[in-house]
Each structure stands twice: as C-alpha cells, then as structure tokens.
Amino acid sequence: MNRDLMISRIEDHPGYWDILIIGGGASGLGTAVDAAARGYKTLLLEQHDFAKGTSSRSTKLVHGGVRYLQQGNIGLVLEALHERGLLIHNAPHLVRHQSFIVPSYDWFDGPFYGVGLKVYDLLAGKLGLRPSKILSRSETLKKIPTVEPDGLRGGVIYYDGQFDDARLAINLAQTAVEQGATVLNYCRVTGLLKENRYVSGVAAVDEESGKQYEINARVVINATGVFTDGILQMDDPETERIIKPSQGVHLILDKEFLPGKAAILVPHTDDGRVLFAVPWHDKVVVGTTDTPVPAAELEPVAMEDEVEFILEHAAKYLTKDPVRADVRSVFAGLRPLVSPGGVENTSEISRDHYLAVSKSGLVTIAGGKWTTYRKMAEDTVDRAALVAGLNPHPCPTRDLRIRGWLKNIDEDNPLYVYGSDKVLLEKMIKKQPSLGHQLDAALPYTEAEVIWGIQQEMARTVEDILSRRTRALLLDAKASVRMAPRVAELLAQELGFDTDWQRTQVEAYKVLAANYILEA
Hints:
The chain is of the alpha+beta class. It is 35% helix and 24% strand. Strands 3, 4, 5, 6, 11, 12, 13, 14, 15 and 16 form a 10-stranded mixed sheet that branches.
C-alpha cells in the first residue's frame, strides 16, 4: 500500500464510486474487502490510522462467546462460532487455537461450565476446534501451575481462538487494495454531500496536506464504531444517539504470571463480566472491565479504579499477586455498543451488530465484534448494493484468503505475524543486515519491520509503527518510548521529513505513551 498512490486514485477517479466507506476499523475494512471482492468500485476513508480505535484494543480473542451462551443468545453464539472457524481458515498466520481453562473453586458454582461448554462444542459443529472436558485438580494445576490452589476443585478446558487484532486490520487493508479498493488513512470526513435530500458523497480533508476533497458515491456507509453518532448527526442533526460507549481496560504482565500455553477464564467478577488472562506475544493480557463512559474518545485512558479492579481480581486466581510495578502496559478501548431503550448496564447490552438505512440513504453498520466482522461486512454490502441499485454479486469472502495467508507458521520466529510476507522481510535483512538490529532489547522488533511498515503498510507516524504495525506500545510501553527516536529517524528518512519533524514526533509519542505506563 502506498499513500501517494491512494491519493492519486481519488484525484483521478472519474465520476462516482460505487461504495464509499467511512471508518477504517474492523467493520469498515471488512466491508471494503467484501465490496471490492464483488467488483464494486470501493473507497475507504479513515480519519486517523487503520484500527486506531477499538479495533486495536480488544482482548485479542476470536471467540463464540461463552458468556452469550449463558445469557441464552444462541443465535449470536452460532454466528460467532461459524465466523471463528472461517477466520482461522482465512488468516491462519494471525488466528490460532487457544485453550482456556475455567478453574472451579469452592466459592462459586460452576456447573454451567461443564454442561454448557459441551453445548458450545455442539454449536461449533464442523468448524469446532477440540472438545471441552472436565479436568481434575491435579490436571488443572499441571496446565496452569500459577493458578491459586487454595479451594481449587478442578476445572474445565475448552478451545477458542486468539489473534493479533491490529495486524489483522492491516492485512485486511492490504487485501482490500489487492481486490481493487482504494483505502486512505489520515483523511477525515467533514461532511456529507446531498442531492435531492439523498446522500451522494462526502466532503473530506487530507490531514497531512490540508487539501480538501468532494467525493461522489452511489452509496455511503457509516462504519465509524464509537463515532457512529457523529456521522449520523452530519446526516440529520436531530437524529437520536444510538451508541452507548463502554470502556474495557487490559493490563499486560510478563509471562511468568501465566507461563503455560493455556489461558484462564474466570466466569464471575463484581461487574458481571468474565475475567481473562491470555498468553499473547510472550506476555499475558489480563482484562477486562466494562465501564460506561459519557463520550467517545480517540485515545481513551484507563481509570485508576479499573486498573485496581483487574489487579484485585487477578490476585484472587494467581499464586503471584500482580502489583502496579509488574504492569508493562495498560490500554483502554471503547466498545461501540448499540443501546436499546432502557438498558443502563453495558454488560447486558447485546453484542449483535446493528444495520440501518436512514431516510437519506446513508447506510450505518455498528455494534458487533471482531469475530463476526466478515458477516457484518457481508450484510452491509448486501444492503448497500440494494440502496445504490448496484448489480447484485454474491459474497466471495467466506473462502477469501487474507493477505499473508500461510498455513504452517513458526511462532518462535517473531516475524511469523507477517505470514507469507515473512520471507520478504528476511530478504530485506539479508540484503541490508543492519535492518536486522533490534530496536530495543526488551522486545523482538527490528528496523526492517519499521521500513516494511512504511513502504508496504502505509505507516505515517511513530505511533503507527509502535502501536499497530508492531505491538510495542501495548506489550511494553517504556521499551516503546526508548524505541521512538530511532523509529522517527527511519520514518523521516523514508518519508522525507526533517529533524524538527522527528523531534515533534518523539515528543508527541512520549505524551501518548505516558497513559500506557503505570507508576508504582
């Protein structure tokens, strides 16, 4: 992907795009892949970087939703389990099987997680992973030796999926381009164009150059996640808000807190959510919370009580109680929950996706979750094509391999997340060995990955590289700050910026990263 090429495509495009998508998160990128794969002339605009918001801040799970099964939402579970299976087949370099253990203690009742998980297995059908089973106390301790042994009766093991969310988003952007779409980051939609009261395109500004555009489209799709209401109110200022944002916080700990390959699921916490501790990139992700927030923010910040909530609950289930000094990074994400009338508790709001068409023909897709992004996109393009009067084409994404597809990967090689592109990075390093230098001893990322992110993945800032092209910010925020000056230098060399730009980038990154660092 090349940003200058994307801009020239917009400027040179004659007439109307078939489908224009606002938003470069999971739902927007999935919709771009689907629309382009059907042969529609497709444009996607993202105000910041791809997956800047919710889509890079998940619990890193591709799952059917055991909790939704307990709530009786069988339809959502069936759909998610089906989509989980498709995603594992379509992006095996980023999505893998993950074992989860539900420990059983004297102090809570867990019969559901024996019988219920058998139902979970049955619902998965042919796309199931491995069957769940009851574990004895000794078997549970063998698989998760750091789980709290006091009062432990045994456990239940089941299987779901685990993935790298931001890397998948970048690969989806690349896949969309390979299918013929034009995708552009740092291009903010400032208004909707209308003809005879119907939406006919957007006004947008390139945040880098300041250049303004008026872009026509047969149909416009609002796929902006937590910012959905802003686009709806561009269309009609009287529109009622539909998004009730909820904040989820995660802590990153060193692997010693969960040294095995199994994850832990705790089914009951004080706010009614489950607690996960999941191995991820040689660290452990622990979360999450469910805190209603009054407004959507591009860069949400963890609240002190959320951090303490996770530490307190993790201490109940781990032999070594994590403290603030153990936290390598803390990150917050906002869930774009579509609120039905009268529901105040965000943990009770359905995770089903919401699809609607306004009187002006604006198509809005909201809600849902990463696991079901492909089905959300399919439904959205079906509806958009109908609104626009486009020739119908069948959805081809059930079996569409995502960029980087590689069946057999070596997770001991840190470059495995690039899938089939790994060999190209290795050739870069072989040709220029200095690119193999690690940016910091605490993390495996190399200079080659910075250059690749700039040249092939449309990275434009230090944050793009350290937060989403690599996952340094989320894995070890302090280490990422140490990496920032060299990353800025490489960006400046590739993009033609001066030393003042480098200094500005590094200072801005330090301010951002400070919110990911917990002071002891």
